[in-house]
Design a protein that fits this description.
The complex is a heterodimer of chains A (364) and B (558). Chain A is an alpha/beta fold and 364 residues long. Chain A has 16 helices and five strands. In chain A, strands 2-1-3-4-5 form a five-stranded parallel beta sheet, sandwiched between helices. Chain B has 14 helices and 23 strands. In chain B, 40% of the residues are buried. The chains are: A alpha/beta (364), B alpha+beta (558). Chain B: It comes from Actinacidiphila acidipaludis.
Chain lengths: 364, 558
């Protein structure tokens, strides 16, 4: 291109224009902003990573602050997807593959496909031949794809920490057939600690980092050694994860019953409110299970303090989390690691000094 | 000490020739502190002919033994009077054999060296080490080769392993495809390089035979100097001294040939090594043919599956469509639920959308969905007459050998101005739902008999109009019958589906599909489920009609 590059200080204005277009559900205006940026000389990769990627971060932040509904969040993602698809067909963006082949996939049951999609587009731009398998790829499909098509590396994306056990299965599955895995996404920790814990061959904080690591080459796993999942996580031998994960429904029921006994106000909840409370408890048990899987205190404590913020933003008293943790501690009194995690979470909650309230759960 | 010496002999410096001493089954040499041989028994005299009494150890016994004597003297002098542990024996070659020498000190400062023949043990130990190394290699080779069902990776792994352990250069040649030979090279210490070469395999003696599975030529019959150029890796320099060509046996058919090359300055392949190379080739061949078989099966499955996979849904003639499908079995991609979309002959004609559920799961059910879908495609011109379509389909299913029935919804979809007009007909299928702009959820009043069970069917169509931002949802009972939830065993149910849908007012079609799929998936929480399919039909929002200028031409082609 002969046009001068878009000056860096023009980027915030472009982001705002894009934000306005996406939140007002105007897919055409969103596409206009993106194509205008290209026409003005912004590099396609910068369009993807400096305009579209921050949009998703903002969507998540606005949702957490209760300024964006879940439906608006879905709509924004759908529009961003369409814009990326349109961008991929733009003549300025088409690239012939010159490097190796990479498979980009989301972990099983991981619905946030956009970060992986952006990575797939960036790698394509940089000359990789990319197989993008999309959101929630069952590990069996991923492995079958790799057997049939081969790959120099797999880029695995996961944003929700509860999918870490599934991510572990995918990582070991790929490695078992000799293909290295680079992990990315918030689920793996902001410093990639869970990617290391689960034995990923590499980790990157963002798409540019992943592209650089892939370009430098990620060594293939040693097949000769033979590797089992338990080798990475010897603490799983105590069966606490297995117990909590398997009896999730019963744990939720028990917590719900005891909460109702302790808080008579809950008797007035309608079926919908009751279900929302049960869902919140189920989430807490989910995170407890994954924290047991990774043996990571900060995973569970972090989720509890984050939930407290989310509840506060929705005017639900976050103090209601404490009795849930207490009841779980009674139920799991024979499980030392669970007790440790619950204790750490209670301390973190105290440190966050959430205002106290009287009604547990049940945000609409 | 003296008792061992047996009968006293005439004097120092004279070899003992009789008694126990002479009968000792091991060679024994006694030397003094100055390194001079004092006595040697007959067995020693046979082994070390010059080590006669009076001779210097340094001149008449192997260096390692003379050195051991000097070291033992120092050690015994330092520990004089101690009756501690005997020093460790020394060992080394004597002629072609290998001996262990055990020292025993005597009070006079002399040391008796008992020489024990360890040749057989050394040979056995070497053989054991070689076998261990080979077993380790075969285990590693099996781990590596069995890991991949991808032919290219398997070929690369084979040459890499062979170049690391068996030869300086390893080459795998696969059976020719369309006159060209797939070839993968590896030079020891480098990564494998693959290529497709137009060459005649008979240019290397033994190769054409190996590719056809004949027994290998002994390597001494193949002259390294006659190796064709196409076989050598690019940039390879040096002469080839020794070549092994061996067949990679497959399941019934040869999987290719393995060629091992050694440089001119390396030892030739021994017969033993050739046998070992064949052991490795047997494993590599089995892995390669399994990979090839898997590849062929996958290609066949993909071809057949292509017709059964749900189609991509997107905007068509001004209407937004989105579909989502999740088969019951995680390992399968198809099942008894299906949906399809057929555009009308022109953009002004209605499109026909169908979503349905064949009783049963898995591939058997999927095959019938394929049949229904192709029948419906042929019936698309009758898009205005659902009853006739359903009757023809019913007749076709009754006359087929399939003993299965199906439920489905047909939708004729047409855009008119900003609205989308739908004619919907249910054939024994869960009622389609409409979400209005204000979040109200309506059931579409259509009902009818299921298909493929009774000779006569009835159906009642319903007409619906969607305003921009409104969506019609077709779904299968896999959603409403999903069991799970926070308490583990509750039905997702129609009421919950309606509640979820009411929050999807004014959402793009694909976002509606994604939202419902995501919530149902969370509800299931890794639990088992039936096939689940859904289609959203939405009237697009039209907030941007003002922008019909040159720059945005082609957006509204309706």
């Amino acid at each position: 291109m002969t046009v001068a590059p878009v000056p860096q200080d023009a980027v915030p204005a472009l982001r705002d224009a894009l934000w306005a277009a996406v939140t007002s559900r105007d897919e055409y205006r969103a596409a206009d902003v993106v194509f205008d940026a290209l026409a003005q000389g912004m590099a396609p990769e910068a369009v993807l990573l400096d305009l579209l990627a921050p949009l998703q971060v903002r969507v998540g932040a606005e949702w957490a602050a209760n300024r964006l509904s879940v439906t608006q969040e879905h709509a924004a993602s759908a529009i961003t997807e369409r814009v990326i698809a349109a961008l991929a067909h733009h003549p300025a963006v088409r690239t012939a593959p010159t490097l190796g082949r990479v498979t980009v996939a989301c972990v099983d049951q991981e619905w946030h496909a956009l970060p992986a999609r952006l990575l797939a587009e960036v790698l394509t731009l940089r000359g990789w031949r990319v197989d993008f398998l999309g959101a929630q790829v069952p590990t069996a499909h991923l492995i079958a794809h790799l057997h049939a098509n081969g790959a120099d590396a797999v880029a695995l994306s996961s944003s929700v920490p509860t999918r870490l056990p599934a991510a572990h299965a995918a990582i070991t599955g790929c490695q078992a057939i000799g293909i290295p895995v680079i992990a990315g996404g918030p689920a793996f920790g902001d410093d990639g600690r869970y990617a290391r814990l689960l034995g990923a061959d590499a980790w990157a904080a963002d798409a540019r980092g992943a592209a650089e690591k892939l370009a430098a080459g990620i060594p293939a796993p040693d097949l000769a050694a033979g590797h089992r999942r338990i080798d990475d996580l010897p603490h799983l031998a105590d069966q606490e994860f297995t117990f909590v994960a398997r009896s999730q429904g019963d744990l939720v029921k028990t917590v719900l019953t005891r909460l109702e006994a302790a808080f008579p106000a809950m008797a007035s909840y309608d079926a919908h409110q009751r279900e929302r409370t049960a869902e919140d408890i189920a989430h807490i048990v989910d995170f407890l299970a994954v924290a047991l899987y990774c043996d990571a205190d900060e995973l569970f404590a972090g989720f509890i303090t984050w939930t407290a913020e989310i509840l506060t933003a929705r005017h639900v008293p976050a103090a209601s989390l404490r009795p849930v943790l207490n009841i779980l501690a009674t139920e799991l009194k024979d499980f030392p690691r669970s007790l440790r995690l619950l204790g750490e979470a209670r301390r973190a909650l105290d440190a966050a000094s959430v205002p106290s309230g009287t009604h547990p759960g049940a945000h609409a | 000490m003296t008792s061992i010496e047996g009968n006293p002999v005439a004097g120092a410096g004279q070899a003992p020739t009789s008694g126990l001493w002479a009968l000792a089954p091991y060679p024994v040499i006694v030397a003094d502190a100055s390194g001079t041989v004092v006595r040697a028994n007959p067995a020693a005299a046979l082994l070390l002919r010059e080590a006669l009494p009076g001779a210097s150890m340094a001149d008449t016994v192997p260096g390692w033994l003379a050195r051991a004597h000097r070291e033992a003297l120092t050690r015994f002098a330092a520990h004089a009077g101690c009756t501690g542990d005997l020093p460790a024996p020394s060992s080394g070659p004597v002629g072609a054999r290998s001996f262990e020498a055990h020292p025993t000190p005597s009070p006079g400062g002399e040391i008796a060296w008992w020489l024990i023949d360890g040749t057989d043990r050394r040979v056995a130990e070497q053989a054991l080490a070689t076998e261990r190394q080979r077993t380790g290699f075969l285990v590693e080779a099996s781990n590596v080769l069995l890991a991949s069902l991808n032919t290219e990776r398997c070929m690369a792994a084979t040459v890499r392993l062979a170049a690391e352990y068996l030869a300086d250069v390893a080459i795998v040649v696969a059976p020719p495809t369309r006159g060209r030979l797939p070839v993968v090279h590896a030079v020891a210490g480098q990564s494998a390089v693959a290529g497709l070469i137009a060459a005649d395999p008979s240019s290397l003696p033994g190769l054409a035979e190996a590719l056809r599975g004949f027994p290998p030529l002994p390597s001494r019959w193949i002259d390294g100097a006659l190796l064709p150029d196409w076989l050598l890796p690019e940039g390879f320099t040096g002469t080839i001294g020794s070549v092994v060509v061996t067949s990679l046996p497959g399941h019934g058919v040869p999987a290719g040939a393995l060629i091992l090359l050694r440089r001119g300055d390396q030892a030739r392949f021994s017969e033993d090594e050739e046998i070992f190379a064949r052991l490795f080739a047997a494993r590599a061949g089995a892995a390669l043919s399994a990979a090839r078989l898997y590849g062929e099966q996958t290609a066949i499955t993909q071809t057949l599956m292509r017709e059964l996979l749900p189609p991509r849904m997107q905007r068509l003639n001004g209407v937004d469509f989105a579909g989502g499908y999740r088969p019951a079995e995680m390992s399968e991609r198809v099942g008894g639920d299906f949906y399809d979309i057929h555009a009308g002959p022109s953009p002004d004609d209605a499109s026909l959308v169908v979503l349905g559920d064949v009783c049963g799961k898995g591939l058997d059910a999927a095959v019938l969905t394929g049949k229904i879908r192709s029948t419906l495609q042929a019936l698309t011109p009758m898009v205005d007459d659902h009853e006739r379509i359903l009757n023809l389909l019913n007749g076709s299913l009754l006359n087929s050998h399939h003993a299965r029935f199906a439920t489905m919804v047909l939708a004729s979809v047409q855009r008119a101005e900003n609205e989308v007009r739908l004619r919907l007909t249910s054939a024994g299928h869960p009622t389609p739902l409409i979400v209005r702009l204000d979040g109200t959820v309506e059931e579409v009043p259509t009902r009818g008999t299921l298909i493929g069970a009774l000779p006569r069917i009835e159906s009642h169509s319903a007409q619906v109009v969607l305003q921009p931002g409104e969506t019609c949802l077709l779904y299968t009972d896999g959603f409403t019958e999903a069991r799970g939830g926070p308490l583990g065993n509750e039905l997702f149910g129609e009421e919950r589906l309606k509640r979820v849908l009411s929050h999807c007012a004014d959402m793009p079609a694909e976002a509606v599909v994604e939202r419902i799929q995501m919530l149902a998936s969370e509800w299931l929480h890794d639990g088992g489920h039936d096939d689940m399919a859904l289609v959203a039909i939405s009237a697009p929002r039209t907030t941007h009609l003002s922008a019909v200028d040159g720059h945005t031409r082609g957006r509204y082609t309706v």
